[in-house]
Amino acid sequence: MVSAEGASRYLDPALFKPRFLDQVDAVVLSAYALVGGPSRSYAAEVLEAARRRELPVFADLGAGAVRAAGKELLKHLRGVSWLLMNEGELKTLTGASSISQGVARLRQEGFQRLAVKVGAMGSIVVTPEGEELLEPFPIEDIVDSTGAGDAYTAAFAHAILEGKSPVEAGRLANLAGALAATAIGAQGRLVTLEDLKVAAG
Question: What is the pTM (predicted TM-score) of this model?
Fold first, then answer.
């Protein structure tokens, strides 16, 4: 395999300025930025600046980040608006044997808003008021799930910022993830707002 380190590996915390967030509506953060090195310091600066501005923060976990940093991630992510993850990441992070147990453990840690992708079952949206399983959209020709999680996160965050309820946001995110999986590669099928409007009816 030939690859290069992700761009976040080169973030220099000395170059971050809080004014970078002046024209920002929200922060979407990959947990990979919190694993270590300069990117962790940079991400911590961004999170602190976002908190001071009371900006919504959507933190997207990743299997590698969870394995590498474990519960250390939670220390950095306290106070974020939403934690997004898949079932495996939830169980690894919390040491739980079931989704419900994992959600309960995160609630005990103070995380009250979660979106958990559960594969063929769709996703679960967790709020202080309760939990709801949202069925997946029945889209044919699924060929590659690479990038589906990123599409889910982007659609979810956008919908929340547009004022949609967490349940509505979760349904649109399910649809975005499914559409992204109809082509090969992370950017084989870029999902647009028009896609979501047409497919959701």
Answer: 0.89
- pLDDT tens sequence across 54-70: 999 999 999 999 999 98
Print burial letters for 58-77: b (CB count within 10 Å at least 16), e (below 16). Answer: bbbbbbebbeebeeebbebb
pLDDT tens, position by position, 135-148: 987 777 776 566 67
Could you list the active site residues? 150
Domain residue spans in the chain?
A: 21-112, 134-201
Edge-first strand listing for the sheet containing 82-86: 27-30, 57-60, 82-86, 114-117, 123-127, 130-134
User: What architecture (CATH level 2) is domain 21-112?
Assistant: 3-Layer(aba) Sandwich (3.40)
DSSP, collapsed to helix, strand or coil, labels residue 36 as: coil
